[in-house]
Write a structure and sequence with these properties.
single chain; 318 residues; alpha/beta; two-stranded antiparallel sheet; 14 helices
Length: 318
């Protein structure tokens, strides 16, 4: 596979996901970038904005195993990771694997689980392995977490700790679609059976584990000029001295942006990154990694607004 074939593959995958998810092209692109970059995505939005459908559609477009965990206040770490159960017939412990042992994991409403259960995913997301009773179990190179959370309802929810937020490559904010898109969605559904599901969307699995590995090999060969790397570092360092930001982004955040830039370049058939790639990815990559100062919050500023102001101040390479 060369860059041209890879670009065509990604375009085809976008089209397949678009059969079920309409009006979210930018969000679909960022999810695919995260998968090929080896990252994870946190998707935030009000109910009924196709967050779960997005995860199911992405998994349907890939020939990978998919599982879902519905996070609730009574969910325990063992319900996520699995437990060793004693078998009285063999007098041995047997591992009953939890739903985390998969390729694509939908962590639905992750902020409804208590911190103890949320932290069960930390090692899995960072190291792609799980340690149970002193034994390490690999989750494989394709392991990807797409977590959703509802920003409206705060009762009975637990904010994600900063350490876990930093494990997500992107935080994607899903809003209501435009009027024309909503009309198109309803028009499409009006021609289907009332109980139709995702299988009727006809999404073809185009990305196999082998294709994912080939794509990542192409991405590894993408060159980032020193001016692009310097630009990324300058933007991230600017978050640490901005008066509107209490805590800025880490070096891990800068590395995440650089990885995403390489993927976006490959998606467009280029073997080099551009400042436009950095600017397109900076906000979703950093919006969850910074903490606004009290004065900025009082003034009603948002992380997106503050980050865009930083991009306007830091000169891009030419």
């Amino acid at each position: 596979m060369d860059l041209g074939e890879f670009r065509n593959l990604i375009a085809a995958v976008r089209g397949e996901i678009g059969k079920a998810v309409q009006g979210q092209d930018a969000i679909i692109d960022l999810v695919l970038i995260s998968i090929f970059a080896g990252g994870h995505c946190l998707v935030e939005g009000p109910p009924g904005t196709a967050k779960t459908l997005l995860a199911r559609s992405v998994s349907a477009a890939m020939a990978l195993q998919y599982r879902r965990i519905q996070f609730t206040p009574d969910l325990m770490p063992g319900d996520v990771l699995g437990v060793n159960l004693f078998n009285f017939q063999t007098n041995q412990f047997h591992l009953t694997k939890g739903p985390v042992f998969t390729d694509i994991l939908l962590a639905d409403e992750i902020n409804r689980a208590p911190p103890k259960t949320q932290s069960a995913l930390l090692q899995a997301m960072n190291e792609r392995m799980v340690t149970l009773d002193g034994t390490d179990y690999s989750l494989g190179p394709d392991f990807f977490v797409l977590a959703t959370q509802n920003p409206i309802e705060q009762q009975g929810t637990y904010p994600l700790p900063e350490a876990q937020l930093d494990r997500f490559l992107f935080k994607l904010v899903v809003d209501f679609p435009s009027r024309d898109t909503e009309i198109a969605i309803l028009s499409k559904h009006a021609t289907q059976a009332l109980k139709s599901d995702l299988r009727n969307a006809g999404i073809r699995p185009l990305v196999t584990s082998a294709a994912l590995a080939e794509g990542r090999a192409l991405i590894d060969a993408i060159h980032l000029d020193s001016t692009i790397l310097t630009y990324i570092v300058d933007l991230v360092r600017a978050t640490r001295s901005d008066p509107d930001i209490l805590y800025g982004a880490s070096t891990r955040a800068a590395d995440a942006v650089a990885s995403a830039v390489r993927v976006r370049a490959a998606f467009e058939g280029r073997d080099y990154g551009l400042p436009d790639d950095v600017q397109a990815l900076l906000v979703p990559a950093l919006r969850h990694r910074i903490v606004l100062s009290p004065s900025a919050e009082i003034d009603g500023r948002t992380p997106d607004e503050v980050l865009r102001n930083i991009m306007n101040r830091v000169d891009a390479p030419r």
